[in-house]
Amino acid sequence: MDTIKIIFLAKGGEGIKSISLKLAKAINSTGLFCQSFPEYGPERSGSYISAYLRISDHEILSHYPIKKPTIVISTYELQKYQKGVFYLVNSNQNIRNNNIIFLQAKKLAKKNNCPFFNFVLLGGLLTILEKQFNLDINEILNYFKKDLIISKKDFGLLSLGFIKTKQLL
Questions:
Q1: Mind listing the pLDDT tens digit for each residue in 93-152?
Q2: Which of 68, 75, 32, 38 is nearest to 53 (CA)?
Q3: Deepest of 11, 14, 21, 102, by most Cβ within 10 A of its Cβ?
Q4: What does the pLDDT look like over 31-67, one tens digit per residue?
Protein backbone atom coordinates (compact mmCIF):
# COMPACT_ATOMS: atom_id res chain seq x y z
CA MET A 1 0.00 0.00 0.00
CA ASP A 2 1.25 3.47 -0.82
CA THR A 3 1.31 5.84 2.11
CA ILE A 4 -1.89 7.86 2.31
CA LYS A 5 -1.01 11.47 3.17
CA ILE A 6 -3.75 13.65 4.60
CA ILE A 7 -3.72 17.36 5.37
CA PHE A 8 -6.39 18.85 7.65
CA LEU A 9 -6.98 22.60 7.30
CA ALA A 10 -9.03 24.52 9.84
CA LYS A 11 -9.23 27.43 12.19
CA GLY A 12 -8.05 26.82 15.73
CA GLY A 13 -10.83 25.55 17.98
CA GLU A 14 -12.71 23.63 15.26
CA GLY A 15 -11.46 20.27 16.53
CA ILE A 16 -9.35 19.18 13.58
CA LYS A 17 -6.30 18.47 15.72
CA SER A 18 -8.46 16.30 17.99
CA ILE A 19 -9.96 14.18 15.22
CA SER A 20 -6.63 13.67 13.48
CA LEU A 21 -5.06 12.42 16.74
CA LYS A 22 -8.04 10.18 17.56
CA LEU A 23 -8.07 8.74 14.05
CA ALA A 24 -4.33 8.02 14.26
CA LYS A 25 -4.82 6.18 17.55
CA ALA A 26 -7.66 4.12 16.05
CA ILE A 27 -5.69 3.28 12.89
CA ASN A 28 -2.63 2.26 14.90
CA SER A 29 -4.83 -0.23 16.76
CA THR A 30 -5.61 -2.03 13.46
CA GLY A 31 -2.05 -3.09 12.69
CA LEU A 32 -1.44 -0.31 10.20
CA PHE A 33 1.01 2.47 10.95
CA CYS A 34 -0.25 5.99 11.39
CA GLN A 35 1.31 9.28 12.38
CA SER A 36 -0.44 12.54 13.18
CA PHE A 37 0.83 15.92 14.28
CA PRO A 38 -0.48 19.49 14.23
CA GLU A 39 1.20 22.63 12.99
CA TYR A 40 0.23 25.99 14.39
CA GLY A 41 1.80 29.09 15.83
CA PRO A 42 1.26 30.90 19.11
CA GLU A 43 -1.99 32.41 17.87
CA ARG A 44 -5.29 31.97 19.64
CA SER A 45 -8.48 30.20 18.62
CA GLY A 46 -9.63 31.26 15.20
CA SER A 47 -6.17 31.30 13.60
CA TYR A 48 -5.45 28.93 10.76
CA ILE A 49 -3.92 25.58 11.66
CA SER A 50 -2.91 22.43 9.83
CA ALA A 51 -2.72 18.84 10.97
CA TYR A 52 -0.96 16.08 9.09
CA LEU A 53 -1.75 12.37 9.05
CA ARG A 54 0.08 9.54 7.31
CA ILE A 55 -1.31 6.00 6.99
CA SER A 56 0.86 3.11 5.81
CA ASP A 57 1.36 -0.64 6.07
CA HIS A 58 5.00 -0.06 6.99
CA GLU A 59 6.76 2.05 9.61
CA ILE A 60 6.60 5.80 8.96
CA LEU A 61 9.94 7.51 9.42
CA SER A 62 9.02 10.93 7.98
CA HIS A 63 8.32 13.67 10.52
CA TYR A 64 7.75 16.75 8.44
CA PRO A 65 4.71 18.56 7.03
CA ILE A 66 3.10 16.97 3.98
CA LYS A 67 3.71 18.88 0.74
CA LYS A 68 2.02 16.48 -1.72
CA PRO A 69 -1.17 15.17 -0.08
CA THR A 70 -3.38 12.33 -1.17
CA ILE A 71 -6.39 13.84 0.63
CA VAL A 72 -7.16 17.31 1.99
CA ILE A 73 -9.87 17.88 4.59
CA SER A 74 -10.83 21.53 5.05
CA THR A 75 -13.31 23.31 7.28
CA TYR A 76 -13.40 26.23 4.82
CA GLU A 77 -13.55 26.54 1.04
CA LEU A 78 -10.17 26.89 -0.65
CA GLN A 79 -8.98 29.24 -3.39
CA LYS A 80 -7.12 26.49 -5.31
CA TYR A 81 -7.54 22.75 -5.72
CA GLN A 82 -4.66 20.57 -6.93
CA LYS A 83 -5.20 17.91 -9.57
CA GLY A 84 -4.80 14.34 -8.35
CA VAL A 85 -5.76 15.19 -4.76
CA PHE A 86 -9.03 14.11 -3.15
CA TYR A 87 -10.78 16.93 -1.20
CA LEU A 88 -13.48 16.97 1.45
CA VAL A 89 -14.56 20.55 2.14
CA ASN A 90 -17.11 22.01 4.54
CA SER A 91 -19.49 24.00 2.38
CA ASN A 92 -23.01 25.38 2.16
CA GLN A 93 -24.03 22.62 -0.27
CA ASN A 94 -23.68 18.86 -0.73
CA ILE A 95 -22.17 18.22 -4.16
CA ARG A 96 -19.31 16.38 -5.80
CA ASN A 97 -17.15 17.94 -8.49
CA ASN A 98 -14.67 15.29 -9.71
CA ASN A 99 -12.31 14.68 -6.75
CA ILE A 100 -13.81 17.46 -4.63
CA ILE A 101 -16.65 16.71 -2.24
CA PHE A 102 -18.40 19.73 -0.79
CA LEU A 103 -20.27 18.67 2.36
CA GLN A 104 -22.60 20.69 4.57
CA ALA A 105 -20.76 19.47 7.67
CA LYS A 106 -21.41 22.52 9.84
CA LYS A 107 -25.10 22.62 8.86
CA LEU A 108 -25.52 18.87 9.55
CA ALA A 109 -23.94 19.23 13.00
CA LYS A 110 -26.05 22.28 13.83
CA LYS A 111 -29.19 20.40 12.76
CA ASN A 112 -28.24 17.79 15.39
CA ASN A 113 -27.78 20.44 18.11
CA CYS A 114 -23.99 20.29 18.03
CA PRO A 115 -21.79 23.36 17.50
CA PHE A 116 -18.82 21.23 16.37
CA PHE A 117 -18.75 19.67 12.92
CA ASN A 118 -15.35 17.98 13.03
CA PHE A 119 -16.83 14.49 13.48
CA VAL A 120 -19.05 14.97 10.41
CA LEU A 121 -15.86 15.56 8.42
CA LEU A 122 -14.22 12.56 10.08
CA GLY A 123 -17.11 10.38 8.92
CA GLY A 124 -16.67 11.75 5.42
CA LEU A 125 -12.96 10.99 5.52
CA LEU A 126 -13.63 7.40 6.61
CA THR A 127 -15.96 7.00 3.62
CA ILE A 128 -13.24 8.26 1.27
CA LEU A 129 -10.65 5.95 2.84
CA GLU A 130 -12.98 2.99 2.42
CA LYS A 131 -14.38 3.69 -1.04
CA GLN A 132 -11.46 5.35 -2.80
CA PHE A 133 -8.47 3.72 -1.06
CA ASN A 134 -9.93 0.30 -0.08
CA LEU A 135 -9.10 0.75 3.60
CA ASP A 136 -11.11 -1.56 5.88
CA ILE A 137 -12.65 0.89 8.33
CA ASN A 138 -14.64 -1.63 10.41
CA GLU A 139 -11.83 -2.03 12.95
CA ILE A 140 -11.53 1.75 13.22
CA LEU A 141 -15.28 2.13 13.86
CA ASN A 142 -15.22 -0.70 16.41
CA TYR A 143 -12.29 0.96 18.18
CA PHE A 144 -14.22 4.23 18.40
CA LYS A 145 -17.25 2.42 19.82
CA LYS A 146 -15.46 -0.02 22.12
CA ASP A 147 -12.79 2.20 23.60
CA LEU A 148 -15.11 5.18 23.96
CA ILE A 149 -12.63 7.51 22.34
CA ILE A 150 -15.61 9.51 21.18
CA SER A 151 -19.02 10.12 22.71
CA LYS A 152 -22.23 8.60 21.36
CA LYS A 153 -23.27 12.00 20.04
CA ASP A 154 -19.94 12.41 18.21
CA PHE A 155 -20.28 8.88 16.83
CA GLY A 156 -23.73 9.85 15.55
CA LEU A 157 -22.22 12.86 13.76
CA LEU A 158 -19.46 10.64 12.36
CA SER A 159 -22.12 8.23 11.03
CA LEU A 160 -24.04 11.11 9.48
CA GLY A 161 -20.89 12.36 7.70
CA PHE A 162 -20.15 8.82 6.53
CA ILE A 163 -23.62 8.36 5.04
CA LYS A 164 -23.81 11.80 3.38
CA THR A 165 -20.36 11.43 1.82
CA LYS A 166 -21.18 7.88 0.63
CA GLN A 167 -24.21 9.31 -1.19
CA LEU A 168 -21.93 11.77 -3.00
CA LEU A 169 -19.29 9.24 -4.07
A1: 999 999 999 999 999 999 998 888 999 999 999 999 998 888 888 888 888 877 666 788
A2: 38
A3: 14
A4: 899 999 988 776 666 788 899 999 999 999 988 899 9
Model confidence, pTM: 0.92
Instruction: Tell me if 73 sits within 8 A of 121, measured CB to CB.
Output: yes
Q: Is 166 exposed, middle or buried (0-12, 13-18, 19+ CB in 10 A)?
A: middle
What residue spans define the domains of the chain?
Answer: 4-168
The strands making up 33-39's β-sheet, listed across from edge to edge, are: 33-39, 48-56, 4-11, 71-74, 86-90, 100-103, 95-97
SS (H, E, C) the chain: CCCEEEEEEEECCCCHHHHHHHHHHHHHCCCCEEEEEEECCCCCCCCEEEEEEEEECCCCCCCCCCCCCCEEEECCCCCCCCCCCEEEEECCCCEEECCEEEECHHHHHHHCCCCCCHHHHHHHHHHHHHHHHCCCCHHHHHHHHHCCCCCHHHHHHHHHHHHHHHHHC
